[in-house]
Amino acid sequence: MAETNWALIREQGLQGFTLAALPPTVSLPALPLAVTRFIERSKDETASLKQLAGIVETDTGLTVELLKHVNSSYVGLREKAKTAQHGLAVLGLRQSKLFIIATGTQAAVRSRKSKLINQASFWNACLQKAIFAREVAKLFRTDTELAFSGALLQDFLLPVVTNDLYEAYARFTEQRASLAECLCDYETEQFRWNHATAGASLAHKWRLPDELVCCILYHHQGLRVLVDPLLARTPVAAVALSALLPDQLRQNYTGLEQLVLLQQKWPAFNLAALANVVDREHAELGLGVENSFPLSRRCQQVLAGPTGAPAATAS
């Protein structure tokens, strides 16, 4: 089977879009210097783990998050990692790179205030989507860690653009029931661009891996991703399914209902079971993101029939 040409897929998806299309009132975030240096140094096959760890250790917050993650019950180390080098060794280079990118991107966005988005709720929903995408990737037998990172970062630009273009996004939330099915459709109508395209373009500018950029770029493909000849059963597809989960903006108005339809067509896909896994692993990851809105609770209503009785589900 031919290797996926992610660079070509990214190029076709962006279709010449540049960040210059965004209004000057949008102030784009910058990756922490340590993350940028780590990305560049990790491309050198001669770079040692000690050298990469040295870069991580120049950023205290990055080091703390790395050790917190590798020492979580999810990773399950017998002896706690005490240094960045040990943490990187536990994860391996590729998974370490994805973790550093995700953590750095989160830090860049968390430092910004948003008039519309509650960041605690936002990152809680992002983490739910990330764990969900990883579980779906297992069903697809594709790259689980890429699916996790891609889902975690799929909406990373939303706190920025919803703040800097507040009035347009406030109208979306106030008139949600009468507007476009998907937030990206509304954005395209309003701005002629959307947060998926803009986020992917910024991620490409940051020189993030093309496969990660594609996860961001195509995350609002919905169920149609499953019949895409290039994207079906890839990490991108897992991320696209995770984007149907609820969040505070209600980006996809009938997302959960679409997932219920999917489980009727795909016996291996069980929404209730997946939601329970998400809630359990959310606690085990120990990333300091409080799960104030458990996914299993959010799914209960849509999984019930119109009379409140449990709807038929695939086993």
What can be said about this structure in brief?
The protein is an all-alpha fold and 315 residues long.
Task: Give an overview of the whole structure.
The chain is mainly alpha-helical and 315 residues long. The chain has a domain at 28-111. Helices cover 58% and strands 0% of the residues. α2 runs antiparallel to α6 and α7 (119-140) packs across α14. It is globular and about 55 Å long. The model is unreliable at 307-315 (pLDDT under 50).
List keywords for this structure.
disordered C terminus, globular, 315 residues, mainly alpha
Summarize the biggest pleated sheet.
none
Q: Strand portion, in percent? A: under 5%
Through-space gap between termini = 31 Å
Helix count equals 17
The number of E-state strands comes to 0
Helical/strand content category: mainly alpha
Cα Rg: 19 Å
Q: Secondary-structure element sequence?
A: HHHHHHHHHHHHHHHHH
Q: What is the typical, i.e. mean, pLDDT?
A: 91
Global outline: globular
User: Helical content, roughly?
Assistant: 55-70%
List the helices and strands and how they pair.
Blueprint: H1 6-14, H2 33-42, H3 49-56, H4 60-70, H5 84-91, H6 93-110, H7 119-140, H8 144-153, H9 158-164, H10 166-174, H11 183-191, H12 195-205, H13 210-217, H14 235-242, H15 255-265, H16 271-285, H17 295-303
Helix pairs in contact: 1-13, 2-6, 3-5, 4-5, 5-6, 6-8, 7-8, 7-14, 7-16, 8-13, 8-14, 9-10, 12-13, 13-14, 16-17
